[in-house]
């Protein structure tokens, strides 16, 4: 389960970075946040449960320095949402200091020969408790393993509380930003993100504290309340982006394809600030409406659905709307997949052919091909899904012709 959730987190990080990175810099922070959290999960799975000397030799300590970036990425993401400013400043470099300190301390081990790492990995695979006693970095020698292992989740907890304070101040003072304007789901999203992260981090801190300072190493390997809470926190955190499709799809607040009019152009006269804000708050719904109108118009005028290999990516190119925005529109607004929408258009076209008397001249197979379907069986399934009856039954009931020509 831990490995599956971690891989799911890496997948969501990839979606965020691929779809949103170029247009929304804040998504870079969010994508890297999920990536580093997922790598932490992979690290825990490999060290504690995999018993694979190969993977332990690859993972152990070599990627640990990345865990110190989880907190900064979260902080930069929340700050960019509340300020509409995703740029990093020179003073932000100090957030990288814990990572650089650990990397410097771990560097002697990182550059050791692979044979040494493999020998050590065999010891860990045979007895995971060995991790707690082996001091792999200079920091472990100075501070002890308990403090070093505890430093990572404690640092994330500090950044989580910091992010909560920033967000609460933003809400309490009624400040506005493009990320939250007319997007109520954004407030829910931030609460879910920070809530699950807080549950995860506090549980991990309790597990590490009990293991190293209360001398109860079994906490890491047995089912207990802290294990359950950490599992719920991790699962909720890594699944949460899929509960908010707009986060993954990156639906823009003010898309480039929808020009924003000047305030004076909105009504032909000066608008009050409240009226201006009301118009701006409606931009997202106008963008979705524009997608629907543009898609319907193109389908009706050009009938691209009649081409057998018509798909979402082709429609995206033809109407000049990003494919992930189209996917969001069909999924969240029309409540159907593009394939179902396309087949619905094809079925309506086949009905037009029947009303023109083509059922008297052509077989159902021919009508299916003319309507864009690959064969009669696909046509029949789509027709029944849309109309509730098969094409043959529809023809008999509608009485479009006297003598039906069988296929």
Written overview of the protein:
It is a single chain. By secondary structure, the chain is mainly α. It contains 21 helices and no strands.
CATH class of the largest domain: Mainly Alpha
Distance between the termini: 52 Å
Mean pLDDT, to the nearest integer, reads 82
- The CATH topology of the largest domain, please? Rhopdopsin 7-helix transmembrane proteins
Which percent bin holds the helix content?
55-70%
What's the total count of β strands?
Answer: 0
Can you summarize the main beta sheet? none
Percent of sequence in beta strands: under 5%
What form results from the Cα inertia axes?
elongated
Our count of helices gives 21
Stretches with pLDDT under 50, minimum 5 residues: 252-281, 400-407
Q: Could you tell me the radius of gyration in angstroms?
A: 29 Å
Structural class: mainly alpha
Q: What is the ordering of alpha helices and beta strands?
A: HHHHHHHHHHHHHHHHHHHHH
CATH architecture of the largest domain: Up-down Bundle
When the domains are counted, the total is 2
